[in-house]
Design brief:
Elements: E1 4-15, E2 20-22, H1 25-28, E3 37-40, H2 46-55, E4 59-60, E5 71-78, E6 81-87, E7 92-99, E8 111-113, H3 116-121, E9 130-133, E10 138-152, H4 160-189
Antiparallel strand pairs: 1-2, 1-10, 3-7, 3-9, 4-5, 5-6, 6-7, 7-8, 9-10
């Protein structure tokens, strides 16, 4: 299982006003905590974007914290890694690479803001889309140079489903006993 995921992000860009701008590495590295790069699409294209991502393999997430998004979609890419895209009603799309929901480590990371993976997946579904630098509130017209960030998965990944199954099997006799006692209790009062 490959334990690394390479994230490529815009570094030297031309903004929509024509100025060249090198995104500080300190700003890019904030991508482990918040979304630095986002995709903006017209609000009327939100549903098309969600359907397009789902046709490319993204699935609605069952286990995620809602941050006000209309759609929360995830897709396993390889190894323990998955992409997670949140699509908001105003046309903002936030995306990150993270440890799969199959593992307990999904809760604590690592995760990092991504943009190209989802931008490319939208290619045939949404024509009007822009990559923007969220902290600046400005969008990019041209990308001159990228920076590569290597994410490393934890050495030991712990799948949570077998733990839950074992816990349920352990608790099942107690649950059955309470259910049976509850039934007996109800029957004694029905006389």
């Amino acid at each position: 299982m490959d334990s690394t995921y390479d994230v490529y992000l815009p570094w030297l860009v031309r903004l929509e006003d024509g100025t060249k701008y090198r995104v500080p590495l300190s700003t890019i590295m904030m991508g482990s905590q918040k979304h630095v790069f986002i995709i903006k699409i017209p609000p009327h294209s939100v549903h098309d974007a969600a359907l397009g991502l789902m046709s490319r393999g993204f699935k609605p997430t069952m286990l995620s914290i809602n941050r006000g998004e209309l759609y929360s979609l995830a897709m396993r890419v390889y190894g323990p890694w998955e992409l997670h895209a949140r699509i908001f009603s105003d046309g903002v799309i936030e995306a990150e690479a993270e440890i799969s929901r199959d593992y307990l480590q999904h809760l604590v990371g690592p995760r990092f803001n991504v943009v190209y993976e989802v931008y490319d997946a939208l290619r045939h579904f949404v024509t009007d889309k822009r990559i923007c630098i969220k902290p600046m509130g400005k969008c990019i017209s041209d990308i001159i140079e990228n920076v590569k960030i290597e994410l490393r998965a934890p050495r030991a990944l712990i799948p949570w489903k077998p733990i839950m199954a074992a816990a349920l099997l352990t608790l099942m006799p107690m649950i059955d006993r309470f259910s049976f006692l509850h039934f007996l209790h109800l029957n004694t009062h029905s006389n």
